[in-house]
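Ticket 4471: requesting a sanity check on a complex prediction with molybdenum atom. Repro inputs:
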Amino acid sequence: MGLKRSDRREFLKRGAALAGGLGVAAVKPAMGQTPGNILGTDELVGYGKRSRFVKSVRIPHGGRPSPDAFGLDFHIAAPLQDSVGVITPSSLHYMGTTRGSFVPDINPAEHRLMIHGMVDRPLIFTMDELKRLPSVTRLHFIECAGNRSSSRKTTVQETHGMTSCAEWTGVLLSTLLKEAGVQDGGSWIVAEGVEEVKGASSIPMAKAMEDCLLCYGMNGEAVRPQQGFPLRLLVPGFEGILSVKWLRRIKVVDRFYMTYNDYGNLSQDADDAALKMQIGPKSVITYPSGGQQLPGRGFYQISGLAWSGGGAVSRVEISTDGGRSWTDADIRGTAHPMAHTRFSYNWNWDGSECELQSRCTDELGSIQSSRAQIAEFWNVPPGQPFRVRGHDNSIQPWRIDRDGSVHNAIS
Ligand SMILES: Nc1nc2c(c(=O)[nH]1)N[C@H]1C(S)=C(S)[C@@H](COP(=O)(O)O)O[C@H]1N2
Ligand SMILES: [Mo]
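Returned structure tokens:
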């Protein structure tokens, strides 16, 4: 800090005045602890660690163990119920894997990215070469297409934990595609990770040119191994499966390629496919949420996350009466395009049974639907249990019982 010594003393004095009645003892470390004795040398100096009192952890998603008996990683869900702000810490970022992964141990010095296919100049990059190019840093969520709620799930980690948001740094894919020179008719790319066809996805060229990123940075440091170290593709706002991790090859092609990861049919139209791949608008209340316990009636700040593959979140509404009436929530900070956006709503709980819901509108004007609206669209008879088809961006209801316990209210 640039404060001169005398200024600093002034500042400290004023700080002490603000603290008012607090005695000196209040700023001493808690009983029995002198600074430094709770952490080992590596955490003190090398790489920091959180407090042992903070217990928030990821869990295997969908009832499937991870790692499994063969040591393969499967889906792992982020603890959204404990989240504050909009960044998911890298250690808590959800993990998505299409067929189970042995997280590869890639030496970045040996890693290469190849761009080839329908291009004028096929290119091969080392990581050092990529890092010399103009870069961008952007906040983006990723969400697995399998992030769906149902009546069987109890917590927000189970209903919505397969999405996370990080600050990503890397090179725009368009920078490299322009350098390579996309030939006429090059309408799709196929991106491939080191597990060959199992980690490959087809992406429309318009999206590839618009905002796709080749990321080597995540939350201010190198991308984590589970998130694709040393290089991953990020396809903002589209289903997570397209954001190929451990990226080693991009091939420009003239049609949709049905890789091990892809579904649909070979004659997919790029525009139709892009619409199917786009997420949201979506939101969920993280506090209070399923499994939590309110101590009693009184003031609570309802808080949650909203996001959309269609752009920035423009509005979030809250209902405390099961969707009958709606009031605008506050959007906290800046709503970035295709990024988790924190909303909050100051609320007095009168102690009676009630049902909380949140509803997101994005900058395109798309509004999140209720499960009832989706059921009606698909002609599901009222009252019949149903599974939302395709991506599930339905409104999540949480019921608060009179004892303050919070429950998934999907019937
Ligand atoms: N190479 C490779 N990339 C992959 C996958 C994979 O199994 N292999 N899984 C995909 C899936 S299904 C999802 S939802 C996202 C999850 O990204 P994350 O693990 O960083 O959260 O990565 C995608 N990229
Ligand atoms: Mo996924």
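Notes from triage: The two ends are 56 Å apart (CA to CA). Leaving this open until the requester confirms.
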